[in-house]
Amino acid sequence: MAEITIIPAKDRSDEIVRTAAYARVSSDSEDQLNSFAAQIRYYTELLQNSTDAVFVDMYADEGISGTSAAKRSEFQRLMSDCRKGKIDRVLTKSISRFARNTKDSLEAVRELKTLGISVYFEKENIDTSEISSEMMLAIYSQFAQEESMSISKNCRLGVKKRMMDGTYKTASTPFGYDYVEGKLQINPEKAAIVKQIFDWYVSGIGMNEIATRLNLLGVRKEVWRHGTIRWIISNEKYIGDTLMQKSYSTDTLPYRTVTNRGEKAQYYVRETHEPIIKKEIFESAQRLLAQKDTPTGLPKESSPFRRKIVCANCGCTFKRRLRRNCVRWVCRNHDQSADNCNIRQIREDEFRMALVRLWNKLQAQYKAILAPMLRQLETISEREKSGNSQLAELRKEIADIKQQTYLLTMLNSQGTLDEAYFKERNQELDRKLITAQKQLHAKFDDEDSERLDELQKLIGIFERAEPIDEFDEIKFGQIVEKITVLSETEIRFDLIGNIGFTERIER
Fold first, then answer.
1. Domain match, 125 and 198 both
2. Are 28 and 143 in a shared domain?
3. Which stretch, 50-59, 68-77, 179-188, has highest mean pLDDT?
4. Are 318 and 310 a contacting pair, CB within 8 Å?
């Protein structure tokens, strides 16, 4: 019989656990215990005084909804540092502070588990290092999600009521107006431009030509485009009316804002503000729009290349055309007039095959191509490590200032402070907060750090990749940010991580 020697597991009881904390709170929260400043203070002191844990960093999102992880920059920074191997354990107050979305909660916890990182939820007493924790986490996450959806539903009902009685205030300010004391007021200089746009359009001048004229005249700093002109011409606000609920938030998580195409009721309120355009001119413009709005080509949603292809010559996006049963992409400027741009159309299948060639090159040679770029950026990670203690001190300072501001405001609301003293002290705290936040942001380059994360992600994709024989929409979406058409025979794929690769069009 074979001799078996048992090698006992390593005793890790004396190891120092690198611990971080994550906090999130709405900026209008009235619960001091859950306040942004209090959470930062609590975890900073807890971890810095611990004998068996070393404090890594405090990650805190303020005033941001927990229903979508993508919008939380600090949460994303936490996950990034975990992937880089900086953290062993994450502390957070509760599941609702971590995320109010079951999908995001479970995905994050599962990823951290695969990295060997545990999460401890204080309120629920759930430690994800325990085998039974995921079932409990799923249950509590569902409760948190239902709570978030209930709150969101109540908010939407409040918005709907204000729309129905005409008291709802839209957040956007149309070009030509200024938002003053809760009301739209005409900006004379910009209003003159709006009037000129309508005059040109009803006289038969096209939207592309109007945009060109405004750009040549140097009107405002932004570049005028076809879509901008169309938005102005079709906007009822220029006759003093307001159409409410042009877009709406979806009922399911994660919440998305989508265009209202008849799915929800709309509310048209007349004479909400002073008009810039006379109704007869506006109505003439709408009739012209209706005449020209005949569908051409293919549905916008039918291609993964939509809004991804850009002309290197003029900067315009490409549009899709179906001619003789062949799908082609053409520069919008060139499509309007060949004199505007000399880059001609390219068949969609040529873009697809170029992606196949690029994918297979990177799959075969990713170590030689991408690894040197990664090494150049890894110094960023080292710089962040050396600055962690400074970052912690700055975050604690910011938390202290916020806490002082909170208490000062509370005392003033109770009438216990002299008004002059309140203003002077409040201004002083504001100055200190701005200075501390500038110092914090100067400690590391967010853009470089994000690029490092994306490059690591790209390498991870090609570590597991297989060669492909045909275009794959999912793979395309994973790695490609943009396609730049350099000429009729040459294009550049701009990938995640701000890396560009040029491919020839093979015909």
1. no
2. yes
3. 179-188
4. yes
What is the number of other CB atoms lying within 10 angstroms of the CB of residue 300? 10
Q: Can you tell me the mean pLDDT for 265-288?
A: 85
pLDDT of 402 above 50: yes
Shared-domain flag, residues 132 and 217: no
Task: Map residue 273 onto helix, strand or coil.
Answer: coil
Instruction: Output the CA torsion 63→69→70→74 (10° steps).
Output: 60
Closest CA relative to residue 452, chosen from 71, 83, 19? 83
The band of 298, judged by pLDDT with boundaries at 50, 70 and 90, is very low
Q: Are 229 and 211 in contact (CB under 8 A)?
A: yes
Same domain for 201 and 143, yes or no, is no
Do the Cβ atoms of 310 and 485 come closer than 8 Å? yes
**Is 197 in the same domain as 145?**
no
Residues 109 and 223 in one domain: no
Please identify which residue in the block is written with the tokens 């996950």.
79
Which residue intervals of 296-347 are DSSP H helices? 332-336
- List, in sequence order, every beta strand (DSSP E) within 340-465: 346-347
The reply to whether 21 falls in a domain is yes
Phi, psi of 283 (to 5 degrees): -65, -35
First and final C-alpha spacing in the chain: 68
Three state DSSP letters for 222-253: CCCCHHHHHHHHCCHHHHCCEEECCEEECCCC
d(Cα 41, Cα 58) in Å, to the nearest integer?
10
User: Mean pLDDT for the chain?
Assistant: 75
Q: For 63-193, list the strands marked E by DSSP.
A: 89-92, 118-121, 126-127, 177-180, 183-186
Structure tokens at 421: 């003293």
Structural domain includes residue 205: yes
User: Which is it for the CA torsion 364, 366, 367, 368, positive or negative?
Assistant: positive
Are residues 191 and 232 located together in one domain of the fold?
Answer: yes
69: containing domain: 17-151
CATH code of residue 268 = 3.90.1750.20
The predicted model scores a pTM of 0.37
Task: Assess whether 254 and 357 both reside in one domain.
Answer: no
163: Cα separation from own chain's centroid? 27
Structure-token pair, residue 450: 């994000």
Query: Quick check: is 102 in a domain?
Result: yes
pLDDT at 295: 47
Q: How many residues does the chain have?
A: 507
Query: 74 lies in a domain?
Result: yes
Asked if residues 330 and 311 have their Cβ atoms less than 8 Å apart, the reply is no
Q: Give the chain's domain count.
A: 3
Query: What whole-number distance in Å separates Cα of residue 506 and Cα of residue 36?
Result: 57
